[in-house]
Amino acid sequence: MKKFLIVIVIVVFFLLCVTILKNLIIKSVVTKAASEVIGAPVHMDGFSLNISNSTIHMSGFKIYNPSGFPEGIVVSCPKIKAIYDRATIFKQKRHFLIVEIELKEMGVTKNKEGQLNVDSLKIVQQFKSSELIPIQIDLLTLNIGKIVYKDYTVGTEPSVRVYDVNKQKSYKGIPSVQQLVFLVLTEPMKDAAIKGAKIYGVVLLTGAAVLPVAVVATLISKDSVNGIIDVSFEHAYEVSLEVVERMGEITKQDAPNGVIKANINGAMVALQLKKKTDNETEIKISARKYLFPKPDIAGGVLYQISDKL
User: Fold this and answer.
1) Which pLDDT score is estimated for 211?
2) Which candidate, 157, 162, 36, places its Cα nearest to that of 105?
3) Of 155, 189, 217, which residue sits at a domain end?
């Protein structure tokens, strides 16, 4: 009985090692292939292929900025899940029944030459000369979080805006890898009303239509963003003042009451900081331009402050 248990343990350990090795090999191959097709560094924290229930799980999937742009991400997807047709796993055209992508953050960057990072990707620039990589995705669910837009054409420090999209969209009938990548890149940009990107024209050249199934939206209509910062009130105010001064022109500062007002990108921005505990500060930032709410500008200020902290 004891020998039998030892054999079982050895077999289980062997199978576990084979599974881990298999996933590591596939992860390396997928990462390398994705980097080559997209034309920018691609990284993922984890990859698992489960043959028994026909599922693929990816975690920490990121596409980084291409050459010619500051360090940063293009997309950050904490979770990607796919259910595939086992009969097609070794075929040239793989069939996925369901693909779910959690797009937590997308970074759109305009460099000093006025080029967008998404337009500079190889998959966009060489689309006409590249063959489509066929796949079949019956249903794609895309959960879009936020977009961070950085514009380096305005000065030494970029203008930063944050768009909280917070939408879930579903699509059916995706016929190629290129179409999937374009969809993931352009849909958040459309919702943030980012104009002038060349990638929009490339999408029109793909030919095959991707049909939306449903849209469930949660939009921010107010002019402010709120956040809790895990630092003291004094430090939070000091950093906030430094960031706002760099981004625009300060019109009022009241340290005892935690108030900062400034003109940033033509908008009147107001910060209100409140001490919650010794090491926790609540911050509220509002922005208006010509009396219209500008939560994207407010979000950009909060993003810059958080990044500085």
Assistant:
1) 53
2) 162
3) 217
